[in-house]
């Protein structure tokens, strides 16, 4: 890692050139929500002026550049003697500007899961290799709990990371590609003052978190509380819509569907992102559902997010961005669920929702 | 206008990218290609019952056929282009390198389509995936193979293994239960297994018809007539989810150690490679860590059985 300092004006010039030369995506305001807050998404950008550098957090995460909702895995062409299968792992290079530390952490977790197992995913790798990630730090939102999951800082997984230190950006350069690009621009080595400003900035972020979740020994608590009524309570609220998994930066479960071309001369095999909260997630042929109840599925999601990887990879999959909590139509918030589970609030078990049970 | 100095070159992936990942992948990738299916020709179809058919497959490419090796307990993903793919346990002998046999029940979208195709059609297989029955560990012991209904299909591979290495094992008992006599599969092999391979065969049905002369009842009733030497026995249990609980519970009461009982779980799968998470039980993948588990691991998994 090489550290440099660049003025904000020069940085904009750099990003502008990069964005104009490549297919690029950056945060843009697309709408306002019911409370009047702006809604941001990663959108294709052509110039630096289209990028909202001061955005809070995007509604969808950056995982969709690597795990699209729909992805064609292979195609078949039928002929007289059966068929031919065609697979390609091609990906176009993309520049992603303005990812937050938790987004990049989530990509690192996906790297662990999808590239380090027994069967690395070439589709993901092709996209990951062909991406240029510029991260930006930000002051925490009132409801995110990245610090509790220790994902509020990131040290790897990006090409370039910018910390806002007043008039300048403090750059962490993590790839030769980024270093070579920056040679063309006016940068300088960090001075003592810059380092002080960076420390100040980090402290500001560190102490800016208002939401905290105690995740100490959460894996074992999840085990012990497997039959807890908490799951039933939150399960009754859950609408089984799967929104949480769609906006989650580290959820990667999918489903495969195959379909014929209209001319019946071929077929394609498609992967679609799925959610473990959808009713048929664990239905096997013959109709048996291994997780028939709302609460079972909700529990499984928390289990996977907060326990699954504690056992396999010694890390939790959740990064604490609270996108699921913000997006949930039923108002289910990971903070409340986990606090309930830890029995932080005495009254929590009595306030069972009055909504009818759904199965 | 794009500035050429700032255009990010496109990178292709290659084998070296995976060199730093888990060590046995490079070895595995020699054996199989996880995304590309092996093209297979269906060489024979046997209608076993109304709901079950036995498909005999032969991998078309001789090189791929030579490379495809599996161990008892493993499964493969059978793909019917345009319809989808399904996990199917291999029910032929692992020593048979020419043909694969798959016993399939008509239950879902893909298997229903599979029931309409005829000999000579082409399907694709990926795999083999999953864990194995520890046949070497079982050598020198009594073995109980306990199957319920279609559970005989994954048990055929270890059974073939035992038949091929019969001198390594002591008493081998096959306990096979079904709802009705007509649902007993592979009945034509019963005599061969009993007389040539000296396997003690016990069958039982829940609802026998007039022609049925055997036993009626639950599968655990068969143990009334069998003496179990708990210190020298291994058990393999396979059947519908409900069966695991009471058969394994019964064997546990008899005193067979939990790590000597093996079950083969069934889950929905879309990839077979631990990526789609559909088959996850707690924090364990049925496709990578399973489908064969010892009863101790299954006991510790939440919502496994």
Q: Work out the helix count of chain B.
A: 8
Sheet-strand content of chain A, in percent, reads 15-25%
What top-tier CATH class of the largest domain in chain B fits best?
Answer: Alpha Beta
Helix content bin of chain A: 25-40%
Spans where pLDDT lies below 50 across 5 or more residues of chain A? 346-359
The radius of gyration over CA of chain B amounts to 21 Å
The helix content of chain B is 10-25%
Using CB atoms under 8 Å apart, which protein chain pair has the greatest interface? A-B, 71 and 59 residues
Flag low-confidence runs of chain B: 20-32
Can you offer a commentary on this structure?
The complex is a heterodimer of chains A (about 350) and B (about 300). The N and C termini of chain A lie far apart (about 50 Å). In chain A, the strands form 2 sheets. Chain A has an 8-stranded mixed sheet with strand order 3-2-6-7-8-9-1-10. By secondary structure, chain A is α+β, with helices and mostly antiparallel strands. Chain A is about 30% helix and about 20% strand. The model of chain A is unreliable at about 345-359 (pLDDT under 50). Chain A has 2 domains: about 1-70 and about 90-205, no CATH class; about 220-255 and about 275-350, no CATH class. Chain B has 2 domains: about 25-130, Elongation Factor Tu (Ef-tu), domain 3 (Beta Barrel); about 135-300, Nucleotide-binding domain of ferredoxin-NADP reductase (FNR) module (Rossmann fold), CATH 3.40.50. In chain B, strand 11 (about 235-240), helix 7 and strand 12 (about 260-265) form a beta-alpha-beta unit. Chain B has helices spanning about 25-30, 60-65, 110-115, 135-140, 150-165, 190-195, 240-255, 295-300, and strands at about 40-45, 50-60, 75-80, 85-90, 100-105, 120-130, 140-150, 170-180, 200-205, 215, 235-240, 260-265, 280, 285, 290-295. Chain B is α/β, with parallel strands linked by helices. Mean pLDDT of chain B is about 85; it is low at about 20-30. Helix content of chain B is about 20%, strand content about 25%.
């Amino acid at each position: 890692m090489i550290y440099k300092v660049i003025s904000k004006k020069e940085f904009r010039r750099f990003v502008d050139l990069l964005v104009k030369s490549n297919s690029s995506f950056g945060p843009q305001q697309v709408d306002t929500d019911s409370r009047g807050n702006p809604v941001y998404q990663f959108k294709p950008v052509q110039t630096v002026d289209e990028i909202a550098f001061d955005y809070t957090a995007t509604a969808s995460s950056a995982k969709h550049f690597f795990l699209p909702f729909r992805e064609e895995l292979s195609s078949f062409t039928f002929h007289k003697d059966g068929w031919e299968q065609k697979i390609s792992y091609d990906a176009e290079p993309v520049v992603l500007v303005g990812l937050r530390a938790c987004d990049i952490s989530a990509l690192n977790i996906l790297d662990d899961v999808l590239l380090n197992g027994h069967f690395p995913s070439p589709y993901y790798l092709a996209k990951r290799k062909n991406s240029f990630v510029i991260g930006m730090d930000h002051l925490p939102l009132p409801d995110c709990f990245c610090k509790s999951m220790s994902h509020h800082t990131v040290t790897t997984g990006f090409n370039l990371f910018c910390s806002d230190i007043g008039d300048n950006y403090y750059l962490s350069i993590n790839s030769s590609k980024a270093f070579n690009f920056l040679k063309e621009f006016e940068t300088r080595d960090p001075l003592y003052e810059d380092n002080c400003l960076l420390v100040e900035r980090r402290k500001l972020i560190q102490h800016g978190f208002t939401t905290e979740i105690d995740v100490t020994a959460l894996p074992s608590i999840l085990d012990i509380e497997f039959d807890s009524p908490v799951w039933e309570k939150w399960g009754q609220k859950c609408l089984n819509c799967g929104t949480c998994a769609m906006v989650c930066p580290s959820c990667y479960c999918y489903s495969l569907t195959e379909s014929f071309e209209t001319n019946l001369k071929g077929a394609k095999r498609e992967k679609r992102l799925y959610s473990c909260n959808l009713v048929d997630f664990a239905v096997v042929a013959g109709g048996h559902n291994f997780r028939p109840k709302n609460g079972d599925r909700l529990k499984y999601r928390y289990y996977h997010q907060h326990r699954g990887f504690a056992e396999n990879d010694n890390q939790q999959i959740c990064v604490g961005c609270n996108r699921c909590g913000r997006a949930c139509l039923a108002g289910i918030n990971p903070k409340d669920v986990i606090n309930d589970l830890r029995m932080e609030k005495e009254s929590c078990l009595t306030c069972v929702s009055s909504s009818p049970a759904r199965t | 206008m794009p500035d050429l100095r700032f255009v990010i070159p496109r990178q292709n992936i290659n084998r070296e990218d995976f060199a730093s990942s888990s060590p046995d992948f490079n070895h595995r990738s020699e054996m199989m290609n996880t995304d590309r299916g092996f093209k297979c020709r269906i060489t024979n179809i046997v209608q076993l019952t109304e709901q079950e058919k036995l498909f005999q497959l032969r991998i078309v490419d001789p090189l791929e056929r030579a490379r495809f090796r599996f161990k008892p307990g493993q499964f493969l993903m059978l793909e019917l282009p345009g319809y989808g793919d399904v996990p199917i346990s291999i029910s032929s002998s692992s020593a048979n390198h020419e043909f694969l046999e798959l016993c399939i029940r008509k239950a879902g979208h893909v298997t229903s389509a599979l029931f309409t195709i005829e000999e000579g059609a082409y399907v694709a297989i990926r795999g083999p995936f999953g864990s194995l029955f520890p046949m070497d560990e079982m050598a020198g012991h009594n073995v109980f193979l306990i199957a319920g209904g279609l559970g005989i299909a994954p048990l055929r591979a270890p059974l073939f293994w035992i038949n091929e290495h019969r001198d390594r094992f002591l008493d081998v008992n096959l306990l096979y239960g079904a709802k009705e006599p007509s649902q007993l599969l592979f009945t034509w092999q019963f005599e061969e297994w009993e007389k040539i391979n000296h396997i003690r065969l016990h069958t039982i049905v829940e609802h026998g018809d007039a022609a049925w002369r055997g036993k009626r009842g639950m599968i655990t009733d068969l143990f009334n007539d069998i003496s179990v030497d708990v210190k020298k026995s291994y058990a393999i249990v396979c059947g519908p989810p409900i069966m695991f609980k009471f058969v394994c519970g019964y064997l546990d009461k008899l005193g067979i150690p939990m790590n000597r009982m093996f079950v083969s779980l069934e889950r929905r799968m879309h990839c077979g490679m631990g990526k789609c998470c559909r088959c996850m039980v707690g924090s364990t993948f049925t496709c990578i860590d399973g489908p064969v588990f010892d009863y101790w691991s299954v006991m510790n998994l939440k919502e496994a059985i």
